[in-house]
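Q: How would the structure tokens look for this protein?
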Amino acid sequence: VFLRNQQVLIVVVENESQMSLITFPNSGSSYYFRSRIPTDLIEHFGGLKEFRLSLKCAIKSHAIRTTKILEQTVLGLYENIRQGMKSLDIDDIKEILRIEIRKQILHTHHMFEGTNRWSDTGVEKSLESVRLQESNLKETLESDLRTYQGEVDAKIEGILKSLDIKVDTNSINFKKLRNKFIDLYLLRYDWMKDLLGESGKTDADFKLHAQQKLRIVLFPELTNPSEIDKKNAFARNTHLQPVVENLA
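A: Here is the predicted structure in token form.
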């Protein structure tokens, strides 16, 4: 193997994709331990994909023994990091969905503001584009669901890693979140058609629509605003007022 015009000897210790022993001929024949960071932890290490340690050893047999010890230590470190990461729970799902709903509503408004609303042809052109995108997505879900799920999984994995939440694509909560994302991507086409059709619906209407479709309470302040108002009024009425003395 060649790396920047330097010959590199790689000795596989256990799993070539994870741990190996490297020597650079111009480095005084010292061996190096290399570990490739697991993909689910790359974000945790700030994007670093691998690291190397000089073993300060030129004897192959000794270097291999040292590398096997380091391998167990590093694998234990990776596992400890994973255990320290929280698992995806219902509260995480709700917060992620709230953020994604806001993003999709914003995307809907971008489409609307990019439409020539002063021309019937312009509006119809945008409507036709929305219908085509919706039709294409439905066709993909019917004919190639697995590939599309993989694309959604990649997006969700990025979100979870940024939140330091453990990624487990086989967990029931991950699968639930994936399906709700897909439902949401279909819903946004309804919102686009509502805006283009001048239905008068607001962002609050879209949020309630999403909440109803996803079957999860995400915006309780919109579900029962009267109760929220009552609680706020009670809080205001029972709040202790400062005592003002008349010093005149």
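Residues 60-84 form the longest helix (25 residues).

Residues 23 and 31 are 5 Å apart (CA to CA).

Upvote if useful.
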